[in-house]
Amino acid sequence: MKIHSKRFTLIALSAALLFASVGATAASADAVVSDNYAVAYYSGESSFSCYLDEENTLYVSGNNASGQFGDGTKGKTRYAPQKVMENVAAVADGKSGFVLALKKDGSLYGWGSNQYAQLGQGTAFNDDTETNCVLAPAEIVLPEGKAAAVAAGDAFSVVLTEDGSVYTFGRAGDGQTGIAGLELSRKTVVGTPAKIDQSYFGNEKIAAVDAAENTGFALTESGSLYIWGANDKGILGNGSVDENEIYETPVKLEFDEKIARVSAETMTVMILTESGRVFGWGDNSVGQLGAAAASGVSVGAPVETDKFYAPDGTETEIEVKDILCGGRTNFVLSKDGRVFAFGAAGQGQAGCNLQSEYYLNHPCVSASNVVLPLEIRFFQPVNIEEEAEKENSEYADKSPVDLSREIDVEVAELVNSISDRTFVKDADGNMWSWGVNLYAMVCSGDALNCTSPVRSTMFRKENYDKDFATKNYMLKPAIVMSCVAVFAVCWFTWSEIKIRRNRKLAAAEQKQLEEMQRKNKKD
């Protein structure tokens, strides 16, 4: 009985080890989002999005009204990301419905809406919706040099080359291209990439470029910021909020500190100084400047964002690492990996559910906006691929996070934002996202708005690969299960051999004992 009892105990322990190993693997980061569906980079607009996977392959999903899918069609809508091209290093999207893809070899491609020649193909203004779209990737040829970075406004494009030169093309009626001598009108365009004369940048080398809706930005290596285009909501930063004012060519921002980073979107811009201070200006209609001193819908000069708040609303000290302007919702990253959001938040754009009791009467919240920089909370992620296979899952109508388990996540990089949705990457290289989930573009696995950060995945519950169970994300559980199974088989075999040997020994001893008893009777 002791042998059988011990055997049963070991069998139970082996089974427990098997389930514990599988469970531990399923809870790991790689199991929550499988390699096949991992998102490495994001860029998008309100109705369409672009993603890069870990192998630099570009995918697109959402609305295809202007041919954003690059597959020769337009007018369709896709929830499941569609592959466009490989070896892509960076992507930029324009609000009017176009995509710029910078490949790893420095070549540049564009597709989608081309009404204002924003794809640099040498075309003129074209208001005919039947012919003003480029439906497949077309190479954009620069006069000289290779592209190193790209940015896109509403209907114009900005390219930074490896030698620090800036080229622009597209809509130019409000000075968006920064090219001198144009007769500005609604139909004015720059049809092919044109270089902004270096003299307009004080003959300095440009280190970074960005674009708001109708305004361009160039940051020099010495930390000076140059701006050109329309003064939407005071975004030119010269103190004026007159939206009729434009800069036809780049003008240096009058600012006392060296600027390390610029980030712009829609009609708002943020800068980070070399000393770690944050400033912003432009549209402030939903409190997206995050500064108590910023009053009014339009702010025409830099105001500092200098107070930051923990989730419970108490003020906290931080050292700023980076900034990210989403336009109507903006973000600051601290050096210890915390993310602070401010601006529009009613649909989860700030990564917090304002309808929950936690944010009732919160000092940083006003109506549906977060008006002071508020730290985002993270929760335990759930494997959406596994949940999609369960018929009555408790997560069927919820974002794939367990809101009862708050966790610490160290964010290492603010990847991209268009206010509606935002993507960040943690210190382990995992992508997180939140916000308006139109066409499943937040990458939560379904189409429900995400008011808390979720682990980003290109997996979609409605349209997923039925063979996903054989792919990489099952590899680790399979290995663990195999190892446990091999261990169990070996132990069971050894145990059976030992039991049979003991039985033989016991039988031999019993036989010997019986012979001795018979012998004793005879004697």
Structure summary:
With 523 residues, the chain is α+β, with helices and mostly antiparallel strands.
Percent of residues in helices comes to: 10-25%
Mean pLDDT: 87
What structural category arises from helix and sheet content? alpha+beta
- Strand sequence of the main sheet, in spatial order? 23-24-25-27-26
Number of helices: 4
Distance between the termini: 36 Å
Largest sheet: 5 strands, antiparallel
Strand content: 35-45%
Low-confidence stretches: 8-29, 464-478
Q: What coarse outline follows from CA principal-axis ratios?
A: elongated
Radius of gyration from the alpha-carbon trace, in angstroms: 30 Å
Number of strands: 33
Give an account of the 3D structure.
Helix content is 15%, strand content 37%. The strands form nine sheets. The protein has a five-stranded antiparallel sheet, with no helix packed on it. Strands 1-2-3-4 form a four-stranded antiparallel sheet, with no helix packed on it. Strands 5-6-7-8 form a four-stranded antiparallel sheet, with no helix packed on it. The chain is elongated, with a radius of gyration of 30 Å. It starts with a helix and ends with a helix. A hairpin with a 2-residue loop joins strand 17 (259-265) and strand 18. The protein has four helices and 33 strands.
